[in-house]
Please model this.
Amino acid sequence: MTDEPIADDPHARSSEPSPGTVSVSAVPETDNTWRLRRESLSLIDIVGRFAALPLMTALRRALLLSLPLVMVGAFAHFINVLVSLSLADDLPTQVSEAVRSICSTTIEGTFGLVALVAVLGFPYSFATLTGAKSDRYPVNPASASMVALSCFFILVAPDTIDRWRDALSSTHGLPAALAVAIGSSCLFLFLARRPQFRFRLRGFGADPLVGDLFSILPAAVATIAVFAMIRQAQLELGGPDLTTALSSLISAPFVGAEPSALIVATYSMLSQVIWFLGGHGANMLGPALHQIVTSAGEAAASGGGTPHVVTMNFFSVYSAFGGAGSTLCLIVALLFADREPSIRRLAWLSLLPALVNVNEPLLFGLPVILNPIYVVPFILTPVALSLLGYFATAVGLVPVLEHAVPWTMPPLLNGYLATGSSSGLILQLISLAIGTFFYLPFVRIAARLRLAENAKAMNALLVASESDEAAGGFKLIDLPGTPGRFAGTLASDLSESLRSANQLYLQYQPQVCIEERRVFGVEALLRWEHEVYGSIPPPITVALAEDMGLIDQLGNYVLRLACRQRVAWKGAVPADLIVSVNVSPHQLLNPDFDRVVLEILAEEGLRPGLLELEITESTSLVPAVRALEALLRLRNAGVRIALDDFGMGHTSLHYLRELPLDTLKIDRSLTFTSQGDLNEHVIRSIVSLSRTLGLRAVVEGIEQPEQLPKFIDLGCGRFQGYLFSPPLGSGPCLEYIRANAGAA
Ligand code: C2E
Ligand code: MG
Ligand code: MG
Model:
């Protein structure tokens, strides 16, 4: 016998009930941390809405799609750097050459195809995002990709194999690829969703896809023809191909420009804008940098300008910490200010490549690219840091970068080696701190936006989990869009939590009998305190467990904890105090259900008569013979059975007779009654029906004192609700029970 609470609730609420007679407590505040105060989000909302535009989302997804390729490419690049460094000198030449050759082909097959992935990925995502199931003229997203691919090959079509490589790669090809993908899919989808550009061929061919593909032919022909004509015009005018044209256009402002703070800032900013749009800023501005360095040399030779401040490795030493965007600063800011495990994992994972100035995992993974939240620090941090480097060198605080270092040399080390002085390293450390400081507020904004998005998704999940519909047997994880993806994340976290069980615990809500002025039972309610999203509503937890096939495991865990708690309270609470446990319909369908319940009772040493199983009305919608038999066997063994949420509309009176019941729990939705209204009549009927059937009626969800006399008049004597007590941790609940033990 012990008073000690077991499986103690680590998040015990502070709402301590006051001893005395059956006490009335205030309605507890909803403590779901995922509910964000909306009023503070207005500015962020605007940014968020822009980011959520279908065009922006599709662009981000198109770039994100290449993430696996980019990660493999970055890894190959990293190995290549290691093998090229002197530490690999000990390797036999043949081995190092073979490794480098494997790395090169891997880089070509990964980085080298990023533009192609974007050409296919953008139209697919855009068609999906802008389409609806109810579209009168639906477009298969794969056909949008095919049309864009064709337009890309027609318009870009370089004449040599090297130029083809450029056109398909992330380094040179992305701007043109994205331009063609956006242009062609906007045009194609615009046309294909108009009746004038569709053949009416529904039901054509055995496979519906045949009809779909034939029907978009006019739109496809028109779009491809437009791009073919643009190409022809370009050939006749004799201009360069699109990839080259975009590249020269971008580097035009730097031709013959003398190096100055303005030029440094402009170069840095332009390079960042290109990176932000998904292009390879450093590669695309390669000729421009060459121009600046040459002009610096010429200016120095003629005795003007600031000699050699801008060298070929100036930007990679002073602004590209961890890659374009000074992403090492972003990584440090993320590790400092973002609590979300998936983001922290990404930051740690990005750290190693960032140490050799490869930042694609972060750029595409976070993502930074085309993410409006990061546009300001991503562009301004490198600008500020390169200006700091420029002025520090110009006034002689640090030596000029005389020594050549490869761009893959880790930050800090490259500063030291390139300047040949510790002042270079110190300047980089200061820059790192400044850059981190720049990124911090934006990291916090992004985290808050994510929370707001999750809150919306959580609401959608709550609605779905409480509905009776389940597409393909899955209630949550198959939901479309963000809610479905969020459910997937939560589902895998739930499996993890079930294994360690430190985030899952129970609270107990007292049930009181007014006549006896005492607590006669407690309902055990599941709580999941997620480390990031706070408390997850139990209907979501239960629906996720059902989706994942974990409901038996979760149900047994809850049952065991509740039984164990009741045994631990032995002697400290009235001997007949009942503990109620909710049972999901899926648990009832398990052929071993009754056996397992009895086993748990035996193992925990609890008398079956002290356990009540609450089945929901929707359970009784499908009174499978197997479930009925299991319930009968349990009842014969002494376990009590309650019908939960009665009155919500599912249960036929027929089932009331069929089910082996002891208790009817009248749903909260019926508790809002006024004199003579329908609810009052319904409750009166339920109370008299339960008397006739010999059932105990318990009214759920009583919140206001003025509700009570009405129910007592209607013949109800047993209640559960915030008016008496919210669900409590085991310790406070025991205090409440003892304080309200009544005559017994
Ligand atoms: P339920 O079984 O009907 O439990 C009563 C719910 O009403 C609880 O919500 C409780 O906190 C809430 N409640 C109690 N008094 C009041 C009141 O005065 N006002 C209002 N507004 N609400 C009140 P909770 O804990 O969020 O649980 C929701 C549902 O999740 C439960 O409804 C039950 O269907 C399900 N659930 C909870 N724990 C478990 C579990 O361990 N297993 C299963 N299968 N389902 C569970
Ligand atoms: Mg219940
Ligand atoms: Mg209920």
